[in-house]
Amino acid sequence: MLQVLANRTYRHLFLAQVIALVGTGLATVALGLLAYDLADANAGAVLGTALAIKMIAYVGVAPVAAAFAERLPRRTMLVCLDLIRAAVALLLPFVTEVWQVYILIFVLQSASAGFTPTFQATIPDVLPGEKDYTRALSLSRLAYDLESVVSPMLAAALLTVISFHSLFAGTVIGFLASAALVVSVVLPSPKAVEKRGIYDRTTRGLRIYLATPRLRGLLALNLAVAAASAMVIVNTVVLVQAEFGLSQRSTALALAAFGAGSMIAALLLPRLLDDMSDRNAMLAGAAILVAGLFVGVAIPGYGFLLPLWFALGLGYSLAQTPSGRLLRRSSQPEDRPALFAAQFALSHACWLITYPVAGWLGAKAGLPLTFAVLGLIAAAAVFIATCLWPASDPDEIEHTHDALDVNHPHLTSTDSLDGGRRHRHAFVIDSHHPEWPRSA
Question: Among 101, 253, 261, 375, which residue has the fewest nearby CB atoms (within 10 Å)?
Answer without folding.
Answer: 253
